[in-house]
Amino acid sequence: MTSYEDLPPALFAFPGPLRDSLVAAVLSGEKTSTTGLLTEYEAVGDPLPVVGGRMAVMDSAERPVAVLEVTDVRVLPLAEVDLAHALDEGEGYASVAEWRAAHERYWHGPQIREVLGDPEFTVADDTLVVAERFRVVEVLPAP
Q: CA dihedral in degrees (133, 137, 141, 143; nearest 10)?
C-alpha cells in the first residue's frame, strides 16, 4: 500500500479557521462532499480527482490528518448542484441557495481571485464546478 506521504494533498479552503472547521467536519464524518471551481484546477495545474483515487487531508499546519478515497466526481454547471450534494458538504446548509451564497462569498474572495489571477472574478449559473464525493479510509495519528 502507498504511504500517505506519497498521496496528493486534499486541501479544504486556505489555511486558517475555515480549513480547520472543514477538516473537523471531514474527520467527524459530517463532510462527505466538496465543490471546487474547474477554473481553479486549471489555474494551478492540478489534475481533477478520479474515482478510487486517494488523497491526504492536510490541516492548517500542512500536516496530513486523514486519507480520503474519492467515490464520485462530476463536472457540472453551478446551477445544477443539488440539495443532496450541498447537505453532504457537512457545513450546516439547509438549502442550495444557502450553500451557493456561502460558496460565492468564498469564490469571490481575494484569495481565490489571486489564485485565478482575476481580481474581478465572479461565478454565474454556467460556471463549471467540480462536485466531489469522498470517504475517509484512515484517520492518521496526531504528530
A: -40
The per-residue pLDDT for range 47-94, each reduced to its tens digit, is: 999 999 999 999 999 999 999 999 999 999 999 999 999 999 999 999
- Could you write out the DSSP letters of every residue in 10-51? E--SSTTHHHHHHHHHHHHT---EEEEEHHHHHHHTPPPP-T
- Which whole-number Å values give the CA distances from 71 to 28, 74, 84, 86, 128, in the listed order? 18, 11, 15, 16, 20
Q: What is the pTM of this model?
A: 0.93
